[in-house]
Every structure is written in C-alpha cells, then in structure tokens.
Amino acid sequence: MNIFILNTGRCGSTTFIKACQPIQNYSAGHESRVTETGAMRLAYPDNHIEADNRLSWFLGQLDSKYADNAFYVHLMRDRDKTAASFIKRADYGIMRAYQQGILQDVDTQLDIHDVALDYIDTVTDNIRHFLKNKTHKMDFRLENANEDFIKFWGSINAEGDLNKALQEWSIAYNAS
C-alpha cells in the first residue's frame, strides 16, 4: 500500500520523511517526483511513503490512480506559524507561484500575510475535500508529532525502529 503525506508545506514534511527512514517495510521520499509530468508524476513504487506539498495540486490524478487503495495523512501545523514560515520564503517557491501564478498579483499589491493565509486555507480545504470519502486516512498535527506518529506507525503496520523514528521529531529540518 502507498502512503501519501498531504500538506501545505512548512509543516514538518521533511521531518516526517526522516522519521519514516527507520521503517523497514516501506520506502520513503520527500518531493521525490517533482521533476516528472504526466503518468510519471505519480509513479511511486509499491509500499512507498511520499510527502510532497505539491500533491495538493494533483488530487484528481491521485484519486484516479490510487483512489481508496492508499493511506492518506493530512499533515498540519498551527496556521499562524505556517503562515509566518511561508512569509520568510515569500519571494520563491510555492508562495511566489501562488501569488504570481494562481492569484496573478504580478504587481505584488496583496499583503503577503493575507496571501499566505489564503494559500494555507485553499490547500487545506482541497485536502479535506479529497479525503472526505477516503477510508484509510488520519489527521496528523505537528504539535502532537510523537503521539500522532505512534498512531501512524500502528495504522500502517510499520516494522522497524520506532524509537529511532521518534527521535527525528526533536530535530527541526528545513527550518526557515
């Protein structure tokens, strides 16, 4: 079974995958297919855990390929902390793409805090809508990472070193 960590970004997805490395019965990757298009974009190996905030823009294709035959995690972080992290990266990445591509605010007239919140709310709503009819899913709060990761571990019947995996949650990877 494949596992997808759906998220806005800036919420611990890198750490999540680091914590999955001690799992022996799954491979794990972070944004491992971002350079692919078409059918190759979602061509993950079997028994793979993938975290990629861009998957929120491929939910229709994800549903067509995996439907309810995957396990989905909605990884979330405090909305204001997520926005603050995105604001520090406002000039590149998904924030730039959202502001200039989706919102078409080429003159940057919008308040960046409002843009960050709009992006977070839009992606969160897209993920919630996608997950509403899925049976294999869980919400995962960064603020409750240790407890939620233990629940995740059990839900996917992970095999490996749980204690080593939990240690990863004390490290801040990819921090702004």
Model description:
With 176 residues, the protein is of the alpha/beta class. The chain has one domain (2-159): P-loop containing nucleotide triphosphate hydrolases (Rossmann fold), CATH 3.40.50. 41% of the residues lie in helices and 14% in strands. The protein is built from 7 helices and 5 strands. The mean pLDDT is 95.
Mean pLDDT, to the nearest integer, reads 95
CATH superfamily: P-loop containing nucleotide triphosphate hydrolases
Radius of gyration: 16 Å
Count of individual beta strands: 5
Give the terminus-to-terminus CA distance.
Answer: 33 Å
N-to-C SSE series? Answer: EHEEHEHHHEHH
Which strand-content bin applies to the residues? Answer: 5-15%
Helix content: 40-55%
